Amino acid sequence: MNDKWFRLIGIPVVAAVMHVTFGGWSVQYNATEAKQFGFSFFITLMLWEGNRANFLFMRRLFPRYHQTMQRLVLQTVVSIGFTAVATLIFSQVYWALFHAPMCVQGGFMYAFLLKLVPTFMVTSVYESAYFFGEWKKNFQRSEALTRAGIQSELETLRSQLDPHFLFNSLNTLAALIDDDNDPAHKYLEQLADVYRYVLLSRDKTTVPLHEEMAFVDAYLYLNQTRFRDNLQVERDIDPAAYARRVAPLSLQMLVENAIKHNVISPQNPLRVRLQASACSGSTGGSPASDEGEAYFSVANNLQPKTGLEQSTKVGLRNIINRYRLLSARPVEVLRDNGLFTVRVPLLTQ
Predict the structure, then answer these.
(1) Which tens digit of pLDDT belongs to each residue from 78-89?
(2) Quick check: is 192 in a domain?
(3) How far apart are CA 80 and CA 86, in angstroms?
(4) How confident is the model at residue 150 (pLDDT cuts 50, 70, 90)?
(5) Under 8 Å CB-to-CB from 221, ≥6 apart: which residues?
(6) What is the span of the domain harbouring residue 43?
(7) pLDDT tens-digit map of 170-228
(8) Residue 101 belongs to a domain
(9) Count of the separate structural domains present in the chain
(10) What is the DSSP letter of 242?
(11) For residues 295 and 346, is the Cβ–Cβ distance under 8 A?
(12) Which of 62, 91, 211, 286 could tie 71 with a disulfide, CB 3.0–4.6 Å?
């Protein structure tokens, strides 16, 4: 939080107001007045920094929008308690230094209530700035997702046939296949499932992992029919991970990149490993803190093609940019020991 100038200017101004409020305005400014102003400045600094630390801690503890009321209530209670304790301590210190009450009128309660006024004013400024900042980020994120969705839909319209024409063609093709040709019927069903998922999920921001994996399995079936034992797939997915969510088509795109950009042959089979766990570690209060450290990884042995077709990494950049809008945790791209691995965060919503 960049509030350096707000603190540099605000603390002396509030200290001066408190000094005049508690001690009155003196025409002849002497050493005692200077000491009293210095003490007012010290009180203001301690109250400001203490309540600021409380605000930052509560913001990390309750980062999400639906936790706003819970955060405000607890933040207010802690702030009032902190101000009361600080006022009591400062009153004793002021008496020890100046042999006079810090506030002549009303005693401790009057001093405490007066100190609550600047405390709530400053806290309100911080809260308003935070609320506006979160609203601005959410608005920008929504705009970015909208633009990405429009661009994705445009690309789909450019590259895909009319869905009704395609499904009618698949139905016609299914009627032409002999009833006892089960492999052909199954292949056609998987192809229809792949295209159906693309159409149904393209307008969604996230989808459940079990839906995405059903799509990936259908896509892998089509490719394993083509490459047979030359394409080897290993799955290690925690059942609890299926309740998490991912960006639609992202996992399939990672598998597609592995198949597209690597040699697949009997001498050099491609090995793809799909792995996921649903652990729930802490992320230190980030906006994705309740997502834990759960990731889904797609790894393959590196054996890049040497032909004219080179990877532009457009698909991978698209995935990275989409997850940047969906999660505080980044997509991880690793290249080590002959393996190429991409890890995408598993989301909770």
Answers:
(1) 888 888 888 888
(2) no
(3) 10
(4) low
(5) 186, 187, 190
(6) 4-139
(7) 777 777 777 778 888 888 888 888 877 877 776 788 999 999 999 999 889 888 888 88
(8) yes
(9) 1
(10) G
(11) yes
(12) 62
